[in-house]
Amino acid sequence: MGEIACYCRVSTEDQSLDRQLESTSQYAEREFDAELSDLAIYRDKSTGTDTERSGYQEMMQAAQNGEFDTVVIASVSRICRSISDLERTAGRLEDAGVALHIVSEGLTLQPGESDPYQTALFQLLGVFAELEANMAQQRTKEGIAARQQEDDYHHGPAPLGFEKDDGRLVESDQYHDVVSVLDMVAKGELSKRKAAKRLETSRATIDRALQRSSLYAL
To answer: Which fold has domain 150-216?
Structure first.
């Protein structure tokens, strides 16, 4: 492996890693005069909100084994979803003598070097990542509560990604996949036809779900 590692992550199988790969590899070429063949590329496609991902774990193990001295990521949100995850990752990389470069935020954390501004901004970004995740969860809960007050909740079928349990609306096993797909449709990254095919439903159902965006924290 090379002396520089690039880590890329997306939240669903349908999303592409190409944009992050381009961003991190171009940064490595610009800042370190590195060729693509010099880079160790680690990838993850996961819907999880923690850092227990195979590509991440492989990269962290390689860092501790001294296989590279620099990690490049496209943004803070690609490597963490909470301040505790962020601090743990930064601490492990620092202990391994590995620098962390974050392209979009323009931050660099060097092991053994103390830059109060960079450290404070880095921690603040972690706080916002955690806050965003918590707010999304709260919006979902509030959307469910509002939905339960509607008449058609009691008489009609449960919305996409939900099921009814003794008069209560609860998330189904498919819920997180539904949220990921609807999010891509809302952002224009996936067509309604493909979304319907993936979720084995109709375009009309996708439309109804998008109209109830509060249920999915969109």
So the answer is: Arc Repressor Mutant, subunit A (1.10.10)
